[in-house]
Write a structure and sequence with these properties.
By secondary structure, this protein is of the alpha+beta class. About 30% of the residues lie in helices and about 25% in strands. The chain has two domains: about 220 residues, no CATH class; about 100 residues, no CATH class.
Length: about 400
């Protein structure tokens, strides 16, 4: 079937091997295509040219402080869950030159750095990460100050999301109402079935790209229902396993009781649990580096040897470092206890005051990639149990 575009809201089917056509269509449209691949023992995002680079037959086993890849004969292309990378790195890069300054005739000339990056198309984003992008949009695009680099990258971003068929033990998107099914924020959305992908069109641009892919056909009502039922069943399973007896094991998905969590945390700033978690926390900042919504950064001036050319560079930072709270009078948060409390209360409480939304999307990365397995759902539950 040959058309110029497929309308928003339409659902089509595509045989699995024909997904290469989507990769090619995005490349031909000028995008740098990014997709999940195996590197250094993890599923990470990297440049994608071929369907063969995707992690077919691989699943990830995750828990507190644990991440392992395993082979599975039943696994498809996207049966892993989330790895250490998120969409954040393509919108808010780990390192970015903001300005360049040149000394000429005794005066400094300031030049903003133009964005020369190619438009990016990411294949494989999950619902939790789409919600994370919506949260970062609030931070960088709304209000009186707009980040120009973020805005350009956001406008150029093409998202092909994937509906989850599995949940890791660290997932709690069902608690945060951010998944497991993606319902918005994508240009195209893939649901993987045994022999085909069901693809939903989420934007005009997505419809135009998909129309140029050979082999698609309109999905029957039965196939659409089958695709939706996968998400319904996964959410049902996540809730059932999260409510199960803890003695059943730690492989069940987490859950977070969000009822009144804002006041719970802010009314218990002196709770003894903060000291207890600080005894385990390494203040390594892993949780903030893998979090898809954290946006702390540091700006430094980098001069050349002549002192006549200076770059103003922004890099990711973390509230777990002493430098983050350094003022002219000294370090404000000089203990691990105060830094962990700052992170958790901001993420789940004062973020709501700032942006009218929680800063957590339930992806569970902070639990998986914490070296000592600190679990924010466990910390909140412990405070709730003995709150004043």
């Amino acid at each position: 079937m040959s058309v110029s575009t497929i309308p928003v809201g339409s659902t089509v089917s595509l045989q699995k091997l024909r997904l290469q056509g989507l990769i090619d269509a995005l490349t031909n449209a000028g995008y740098q295509v990014i997709g999940p691949q195996i590197a250094d023992g993890a599923v990470v995002y990297d440049e994608l040219d071929s369907l063969e680079q995707l992690p077919l037959g691989v699943i990830d086993e995750q828990d507190g402080g644990r991440y392992r890849l395993e082979r599975s004969n039943d696994a498809g292309y996207f049966d892993h869950v989330v790895g250490p990378h998120s969409l954040k790195r393509y919108l808010f890069p780990p390192q970015e030159t903001l300005q360049q300054l040149h000394l000429k005739d005794g005066h400094w000339n300031v030049e903003p750095t133009p964005i020369h990056d190619k438009p990016v198309a990411v294949i494989g984003a999950r619902s939790c990460d789409l919600h994370a992008v919506a949260i970062q949009d609030r931070v960088f695009l709304e209000g009186p100050y707009v980040d120009p680099g973020y805005r350009v990258r956001r406008e150029r971003l093409f998202v092909v999301s994937v509906q989850c068929r599995r949940a890791a033990a660290t997932c709690f998107c069902h608690s945060m109402k951010t998944g497991p099914r993606a319902s918005r924020g994508f240009d195209l959305s893939l649901t993987e079935l045994d022999d085909s992908f069901v693809i939903e069109v989420g934007s005009d641009q997505g419809g135009q790209i998909l129309a140029s892919v050979e082999g698609w056909k309109a999905s029957s009502a039965a196939i659409v229902d089958q695709a939706k039922e996968q998400s319904v069943q996964l959410e049902r399973t996540m809730k059932q396993r999260a409510d199960a007896d803890p003695a059943a094991g730690t492989s069940r998905p987490r859950q977070l009781d969000t009822h009144d969590v804002h006041d719970l945390l802010l009314n218990n700033l002196d709770h003894p649990r903060w000291e207890q978690v600080a005894e385990r926390c390494l203040a390594c900042a892993n949780c903030t580096m893998v979090c898809p919504t954290c946006f702390c950064s540091s700006v430094t001036e980098v001069a050349d040897l002549t002192g006549e050319h200076v770059r103003r560079e922004r890099t990711w930072a973390s509230c777990f470092t002493a430098e983050h709270s350094l003022l002219n009078s000294g370090v404000v948060r000089n203990s691990t206890k105060s830094r962990y409390r700052q992170w958790l209360t901001h993420k789940l409480a004062t973020w709501i005051d700032q942006y009218d939304t929680s800063g957590c999307v339930g992806c569970g990365r902070c639990i998986t990639w914490c070296p000592v397995g600190i679990d924010l759902t466990e910390e909140v539950a412990a405070i709730r149990e003995t709150a004043s």
